[in-house]
Every structure is written in structure tokens, then in C-alpha cells.
Amino acid sequence: MSQQEILEQQVTPPASEDEKVYVASQAQLVWWRFRKHKVALGSAILLIVLYTIIILADFLGPYEPRTNHVKYIYAPPAKIHLRDAEGRFVWPFVYATVGEMDPNSLRVSYVEDKSQRFPIGFFVPGEKYKFLGLFETNVHFIGVAPGGTLFLTGTDGQGRDMFSRILAGGRISLSIGLVGIAMSFFLGILIGGLSGYYGGLFDTVTQRVIELIRGVPDVPLWMALSAALPPKWPVTRVYFGIVIILSLIGWTGLARVVRGKFMSLREEDFVMSARLAGASEVRIVFRHMVPSFTSHLIASITMSVPGMILGETSLSFLGLGLRPPAISWGVLLAESQKISVLAESPWLLLPAIPIIIVVLAFNFMGDGIRDAADPYSR
Questions:
Q1: Last residue of a domain, which of 133, 160, 187?
Q2: What residues of the chain score a pLDDT lower than 70?
Q3: How confident is the model at residue 80, as a pLDDT?
């Protein structure tokens, strides 16, 4: 570096915050505004953690989600102890659990056998599974030594560990929202874009179809379409059938947003300049028009994912969506429909907690992205 260049660097003041804003891209501006929204940023981090957890569900769960523990049907959540019999603090442990039947009511109650103590361990051997579907292993993140049980959130009517099943159920419930919104995104961009860009008869027919679909309540329409799925279909077909049903109904809102944006942009100067420069229609749409409101599309997508998740949960809860042996949060909640079972085993409602958390997190994140994408918001 020459002496002249060194002097110029010393004389030139560093760029101020205002100057950074002037030269920043739209993505940078949205990110800077989004990270100031603490609730939305925290929700985004929480969703990343939740999706990571469901990917590692087999490793994080102490048992295989379909393993039946016939001696522990409707067993309550395990009591974790931090003090021994003398009252001293020790490593967390659980006592052995023994089932006792009441001779009068014939109900089984579970009591602790304090003669057997099992420390809670990490990275313990257990049932075999395929880690990320790549290789077989038997190492689980948490568990106890053989002979003991660790049902963190109790068991269901077949003695299956609810904690492991909640983790495994998140795979379907959370992935169905992303897969479904991907299809809705494609249909909404395609149909809404064509409707807003070309207008005319196609726009009129499209809007009447959208009004017809949106005029029917979502849940009855979901139920009617789900009832048409053959009951003997395997889990994979039913999964994609539910995705298609939710997508065919969910694209209408996004199409309306895209149509409105295209109608306001098609007469803008930069679109006219692109036409005069000889750009093709496809290039004008995807290179110039769509990127100008990408942040608004992302906000609409994040706000639509909870609807997909709730749709699958509702259908599975009513028995019209996924059915056993599939594992989803809606399937897990279906067992809590019986009041008699729920009164004695309230932990069967625990799958509702992650549903509430995920829906709120997506809504908060969507609000943050929408505010960050709006140049007039403060």
C-alpha cells in the first residue's frame, strides 16, 4: 500500500449509520428492523430450536415412540428426586415404579418402590433406532439404567412413553405446515400473479372462485374433503392427501395479496422500462416484480403456517386426518376425547402445549417480519 493511500484512509472518516442505511440492500434493512423486535426475534430462535428438536427426536427421547410398556398403562409422569432418604442433595434420580390394583375399583395405581433407586443419566444405551435415518445406534440423550423407567410425561393407554411420542409427533405436525405452505405459495404466486398481471376474464373468474372457496367455512370443507380419502391408504398417502387438502384451501389468501401487489406494480416506471428494454414477461415478473415485495410474501407465509398446523391437528383430532400408527400432535390429542380417561390421566393433554407455543411463535415472528418489511412502521 502506498503512502498516499495510507493518508487517504486516515483522512476519510468511517461511514456513519445514516450512510450505511443509504447503501444497504432491502434484505439488510428488513433484518436490521426485525432484530429490534425482541419478541419476534425470540420467537424465530425458539422455532429454530423446536425444529432442531424434532429432527433429533429419536435421540432426545428415552424410548422408541411405538414401544409398549404393558406394565405401565396410563402411568403418571415420573417424580424426579434431588434428595435422598437422609435429605442430602444428590444427583437427580427416580425410584422404581410398581403398579397396584385396587380390588374394589379394579383400577391400577402406581407407587414408588423406594428400595430401588435409578440415577438419571445422559447419553445412555437404550432401544435401537436410526440416527437421522443414516446409521443404527442405541444411544439416547436421557434415560436410566436397565430395570428402571423414566416416563417424563407419563404413558398412554398402551403404555407408550408420551414424551417420546410428543417429540416424534412434532415431525408430522411441524413439517406438514412447511410442506403445505410451499404448495400454497406456488399456487398463490402463480394464480394471483397471472390474475393481477393480465386481468380481464381470467381475473374475474379467478376472483369468483376465490370468493366461493373463502365463503365456505374452513373446518366443514376440510372435513368433507378428508372424508373422501380412502381409509385403507398408508400413512404416507394420507399425509400428502392432507397436505393437498390444506393447500387447495389455503392458497386463496396469498393469491389475493399477490394480485393486489401485481396490479399496483404493473404500471410502475421500472416495469415499463423493462418492457421497453425488451425483457420477456417471465423476466419482468420474477426478476423485477416479485423481488419488490418478497418481504411481504415471507410475512404472509409465516402467518399462514399456523393455520396449516391447526388444520392437520383438527382433522387428526376428529379422526378424519392422520390415524394410528401415524404419530402427530393431533393423533395424540385424539385419545383425550374420552372424559373418563382424561379425568384420570390429564397428562394426555400435554401435546396441546407445543401446539400453542408453535402457533404463537409463528404469529409473533410473522408480526415482526411484517413490521420490518413495512417502511412506514415505527
A1: 160
A2: 1-24, 26, 105-106, 374-378
A3: 92
Does the residue 176 lie in any domain? yes
Which helix H or strand E contains 366, and what residues bound it? helix 352-373
Predicted confidence at residue 304, as pLDDT, reads 82
**Using CA atoms, how far apart are residues 196 and 192, in angstroms rounded to an integer?**
6
- 123 phi-psi bin (left φ>0, alpha ψ -120 to 50, beta other): left
* Residue 76 domain boundaries: 64-160
Q: Is residue 208 part of a domain?
A: yes
Does residue 68 share a domain with residue 49? no
Domain with residue 187: its CATH number is 1.10.3720.10
Residues in CB range of 118: below 8 A, 6 or more apart: 93, 94, 95, 96, 144, 145, 147, 148, 150
Element (H, E) at 188: helix 162-198
The predicted-structure confidence for 94-132, as pLDDT tens digits, reads as follows 999 888 877 776 678 888 888 889 999 999 998 999 888
Q: Please tell me the distance from the alpha carbon of residue 375 to that of residue 303, in angstroms, as a whole number.
A: 19
**Are residues 316 and 225 part of one domain?**
yes
Q: pTM value?
A: 0.84
